Fold:
Amino acid sequence: MTGWAIAALVLRILLALAFIGMGALHFLPASRRTMAAMIPPRLRFDGLLRPALLVAFTGVCEIAGGLGLLYPPTRLAAGICLAVFLVAVFPANAYAARRRDRFGSLAVPLVPRLVGQVVLIALCLVAALA
Structure:
């Protein structure tokens, strides 16, 4: 195994652990309430797509994406889906960033959060293609 292959494997494992861990947090009651509150009002829907259901769905997406990075036949699809996922959840992060008084340490300032999100997207794509 080459140095690049080892680095790519380590990257995939670290990303998988991060996404699986974050996805699991979506199912803890306190985390679920906080994450539901982070959904901007304009994205809240009465009926089927309630905030708690969206939080559960995004948790499943993160866990599936993390697992998908570890399974070679799904690696490419998982990395692309995680990149799209990170774009899709950014409005909730931006909403929380503007409400530090409500979300505390979860409210990472907008510019650092955006930079981090772009880096994470790039890492997902590198892990998918490597």
The mean pLDDT is 91.
